């Protein structure tokens, strides 16, 4: 499948997912986050997108969800990014190519691991990896018409002591936005309010350290109450044991305390290589979901992957619980 193969059309995850999918989704709600309600996602489902995709970033803007993945199945040499949209997490519409590297002057391929954020100006900012550098594109829409905002990388090779891939942007309650990135070491920096420049002097190594973990790539930050949760992928993406670990801190830069229950996401049954994730808050009272990839079933590997979703929950002490993906053992 080429990057341009999927036109704007609708895809129902039930067509490819487990037989249990019919009971996986509660009726969709569009209430504010502070209103009570059941989670619209009851157990793990997948694949939720048609074909081979990886490194999914999921966002919620208004009453719609969006997934921004890496196009897979091309030996990591993809040249564009696509977007998928849904109202209920199960019926996904392909919105087509939202950014093509043909329109980015400084990169030609290796279009990987994007992320999305909305700025204080209400515009949408798309952070992406291309040829081992991090770029940023901007649009008035969350799903189309993105253009390179700088005409050069936001983060260059050798600018920091990490391999500069896998950007993620977190916006705190005070409106300040932070970018996290890196392979081998995790770096964080505060963004200027324009969302396309780093605040000078703020970049630092925030890698969680401990005997039960290592940092590979794919960092993701969220805040729940007064606690900052940093999650990331461990092991090589080609390993069946690719997995997600977690740590907490009282500020966006740490230091971070490694969770006692790592990994929080690990292979189960037919699902292997379950990592490179993102997390979204759902409507209702403290409902969350994790979006991740696994080796495609059947016959997939670290270059042929598919996107899944599962509920994400917290224990009474406020720590992320181990993600239950047992429902993915069954395959239609």
Explain what this protein looks like in three dimensions.
With 332 residues, this protein is an all-beta fold. The chain has one domain: Glycosyl hydrolase domain, family 43 (Tachylectin-2, Chain A), CATH 2.115.10.20. Helices cover 0% and strands 38% of the residues. It is built from no helices and 20 strands. The strands form five sheets. The protein has a five-stranded antiparallel beta sheet with strand order 1-5-4-3-2, with no helix packed on it. It has a four-stranded antiparallel beta sheet with strand order 6-7-8-9, with no helix packed on it. A hairpin with a 5-residue loop joins strand 10 (168-171) and strand 11 (177-181). It is globular.
- Uncertain runs are 1-36
What does the largest sheet look like? 5 strands, antiparallel
CATH class designation: Mainly Beta
Please state the average pLDDT score.
Answer: 90
Fourth CATH level, the homologous superfamily: Glycosyl hydrolase domain, family 43
In short:
The protein is mainly β and 332 residues long. Helix content is 0%, strand content 38%. Residues 1-36 have low confidence and may be disordered.
Fill in the keyword field for this structure.
single chain, 332 residues, mainly beta, Tachylectin-2, Chain A, five-stranded antiparallel beta sheet, disordered N terminus
Topology:
Elements: E1 9-12, E2 53-61, E3 64-71, E4 80-86, E5 91-100, E6 112-118, E7 124-130, E8 133-139, E9 147-148, E10 168-171, E11 177-181, E12 187-190, E13 204-205, E14 217-224, E15 227-234, E16 243-249, E17 257-258, E18 275-282, E19 287-295, E20 305-312
Antiparallel strand pairs: 1-5, 2-3, 3-4, 4-5, 6-7, 7-8, 8-9, 10-11, 11-12, 12-13, 14-15, 15-16, 16-17, 18-19, 19-20
